[in-house]
Request: fold
Amino acid sequence: GAVVSQHPSWVICKSGTSVKIECRSLDFQATTMFWYRQFPKQSLMLMATSNEGSKATYEQGVEKDKFLINHASLTLSTLTVTSAHPEDSSFYICSARELVVYAGELFFGEGSRLTVL
Amino acid sequence: SQQGEEDPQALSIQEGENATMNCSYKTSINNLQWYRQNSGRGLVHLILIRSNEREKHSGRLRVTLDTSKKSSSLLITASRAADTASYFCATASGGGADGLTFGKGTHLIIQP
Reply:
C-alpha cells in the first residue's frame, strides 16, 4: 500500500506558541487529506477535510482560526495549531486518499503527538 | 458525532482463543472498515466490507455486516499476543470525498 508520512512524530511546546504538523503522501498524489484528533484512550474525531488548492472544510465545533490547514500540493498538507494551549495536547493523525490507483482507499500517517506545557 | 459504537470497550482473552468485537452504527453506509491501532501509533487498515456484502474473510479475520441491524462484527481467530491493540470500526457514507467516522474502539488484550 501507499505510505503517508507525518512530521514531527512528537512535539512539546510552550503555551501560546504555534506548532505546524506536516502530512505527506510519499508515493502517490492525494486528492484529499483528512485530519483527525485523538485524545488518550478515545476514538479518532475528524477535524477537517482538505482538497488540494481549496479551503479546508471543518467539522462542527472545530475552530478554523485555531487549526489552520493548508493543502498546497497533491502530496503535502499541513496543520498549524495556533497559540496552542494545554487543552490542545492530543494525538493528531492525517490520512490521504487517491481515487484512481488506490480506488479511494485511505492511508493513515503514524500520527503526531502534541504536548503543550 | 460518533457513528460507530463498539462493544465491548475492553476485552481480555488467553492466547489461542477467538476474539469477537461488535460495532453498531446509525446512518446508511457505503462501506464499513476495521482498523487496528497499537498504543501511540497510527492506524493499520484490516478489512473493508461493502454495504452489499454480508461476510468477508482475510487470514484470521472474519467480518460480518448486517445492514438491517446496522451492525458489524470482527472475529479474530487463534489470537496471538501480537494482536493486542485497539480495534476501531469506521464507516463511510459519502461518495468517496468524505472522511471516515470512527467508533469508540475495543481495547483487546491477549494474555500469553
